[in-house]
Amino acid sequence: MKIDVVEALQLSPEDSARWTDLQTLQPRLDSPFLSPEWAKAVAVAQGEKGDRVKVAVIRGEDGQALAFLPARIKAGVAMPAGAPMCDYQALVSAPDVAVDPRHLLAALKAQRLDFCHMLADDETLARHGRGQADSWIVDVSAGYEAYAADRKTAGVGVLKDIDKKRRKAEREVGPCRYTPMSDSQADFDQLVAWKREQLLATGQTDLFKTDWVTKLVTDLFERRDGDFGGGLYTLHLGDELAAVHLHLRGKHTIHGWLIAHNAKFDRYSPGLLLFQDILKGMHAGSYHRLDLGTGDYRFKRELSNARQTVVFGFYGSPSPATFVRSAAWGVRQVAEALPLGRMSQLPGKAMRRIDLLRGLH
């Protein structure tokens, strides 16, 4: 095997097409975050920093591309392209293709490769994970009614509760108006404003202070390509915006990305009303799955009828960068094993915050 490394924006049309074909052949890879268009969109948004977004192209003896791995290289460390805005990573490869991660590192000229949402069935890197989480998925390939019946049979009453809240909202406020693929700049701006307020209120980092994040989100909102781009979905109660989502669209998957709602309507759970509207409309088009991402939230558990495991960790060569990461993980694992209550979670929180800031800058 030979590994070529090219800048994301210099990827040839032939290799881009091959990458897309490999995704199409394997449903497990059907995520917009695993597409060549995601890597390119990140590179464009990051501008001069975008030249750090590389793609390792693994080729067979005949020169045909067998696998692709995008990464952003910074200070000798490879991280997911678009982190912390990227919700999935994987080596996008033909079936049964295994790559020695040592060769990937050498080709990328990196000492360490970090990942936070690597598909658990990735044969190259997932075995180097240090922990795992579930990504919650709603599969409506059989249609919304079949999905709703399945939820009822499973004893989950979330859809019935949503129906009740919708009736209550329409009685007390006004009719629900759902708009898929909205082009409303005002509603998009309101989404960003609500997200920033939410991040501030919960003590989290304001992602939108970083120029490339704002550019990326804006570019994807404006993109209307059939197989990739953003999708703005809105719900109005009467004349007021009640909930707004910006999701990332792939070929057959909509991935939940940025969601917010009007706190004035909390009692009606407008975000859930909007999710239901999206699910009802998906089967009429080409979308089969709504991926809600990771996070152990009740609404995700109850809406989902499938899940996909992702792992987080790193792989590194003997180097200072790998030693530092190993030491940090050692401290984290010891702390999480001790009965210290919230104190046990502090090293993990610190690592995640550091990783977030590294990705942003």
From TrEMBL:
At the highest ranks, the source species' classification is:
Bacteria, Pseudomonadati, Pseudomonadota, Alphaproteobacteria, Caulobacterales
Question: In its UniProt entry, what is this protein called?
Answer: Cellulose biosynthesis protein CelD
The residue ranges of the BioF2-like acetyltransferase domain are 160-301
Q: What's the source species for this entry? A: Caulobacter flavus
Superkingdom in the source lineage: Bacteria
Quote the Gene3D superfamilies the UniProt record gives. 3.40.630.30
Signal peptide positions (record):
none
Q: Which SUPFAM superfamilies match?
A: Acyl-CoA N-acyltransferases (Nat)
